[in-house]
Specification:
Layout: E1 2-8, H1 13-23, E2 29-36, H2 42-49, E3 54-56, H3 65-78, E4 83-86, H4 95-100, E5 105-109, H5 121-128, E6 132-139, E7 149-156, H6 163-186, E8 190-193, E9 196-199
Parallel strand pairs: 1-2, 1-4, 2-3, 4-5
Antiparallel strand pairs: 5-6, 6-7, 8-9
The structure holds glycinamide ribonucleotide.
Glycinamide ribonucleotide binds near residues 88 and 109.
Pfam families: Formyl_trans_N
Pathway: Purine metabolism; IMP biosynthesis via de novo pathway; N(2)-formyl-N(1)-(5-phospho-D-ribosyl)glycinamide from N(1)-(5-phospho-D-ribosyl)glycinamide (10-formyl THF route): step 1/1
EC number: 2.1.2.2
């Protein structure tokens, strides 16, 4: 069972999808703690409702992002986490956090990376005029949405789409591929060579 920590900044619908996949037996994981950088992150409420330890760690209490990440890593490791999921966590993470999990840090991003990294990925896709966008689950490195890609899903951009309608279409796919990617990790089927992620077939 994968001992998983989750960091979030807001709504937490991806956290919810992970919890539901665990409940449904589709994901062999246990969420040991949810940590947010926003006091009012709804992800914290979802965690508490499920009896999952929920922590608000205030960035204002730390001088640098490294200090913050070191404190976050200490709490999450203390809780028994062996992997970390960034689920709508809207900050760049530093080596303090990545190294604490030996590279087992994952992020979900609402575009087909390497297109449209950073904030407002759905708006970036609309403004660019692409016909397809989607979402990406990837390992986190020190760059902006730049680590090795584990899985992606594609959605069409429809005529008349707004940022909200496109985001909703993408979000449905996020909720599908995120638990799938985590299950591959939980099963030990993922290896990384340079930029390339290899998925071993199921036993
Ligand atoms: C999701 O669409 C996620 O892909 C995105 O924020 C949303 C969080 O929703 N993440 C990023 O843009 C990261 N740069 P949620 O809080 O309901 O899971």
């Amino acid at each position: 069972t994968l001992q998983l920590a989750v960091m979030a900044s807001g709504r937490g619908s991806n956290l919810q999808a992970v919890i539901e996949a665990i409940d449904a037996g589709r994901l062999d994981a246990h969420v040991v703690m949810v940590l947010a950088n926003k006091a009012d992150a709804y992800a914290l409420t979802r965690a508490k409702e499920r009896g999952i330890p929920a922590v608000f760690l205030d960035p204002k209490a730390y001088g640098t992002r490294e200090d913050y990440d070191r404190a976050a890593a200490a709490q999450l490791r203390q809780a028994g986490a062996e992997a970390l999921l960034l689920a709508g966590y809207m900050r760049i993470v530093t080596a303090s956090l990545i190294n604490a999990f030996a590279g087992r840090v994952l992020n979900i991003h609402p575009s087909l990376l390497p297109s449209f990294p950073g904030l407002h990925a759905q708006r970036q896709a609309l403004d660019y005029g692409v016909r397809y966008s989607g979402c990406t689950v990837h390992f986190v490195d020190e760059g902006l949405d730049s680590g090795p890609i584990i899985c992606q899903a594609v959605v069409p951009v429809e005529p008349g789409d707004t940022e909200a309608t496109l985001a909703a279409r993408i979000l449905t796919e996020e909720h599908r591929i995120l638990p799938e990617a985590l299950q591959l990790i939980a099963q030990g089927r993922v290896t990384v060579t340079g930029r390339r992620v290899e998925i071993q077939p199921a036993q």
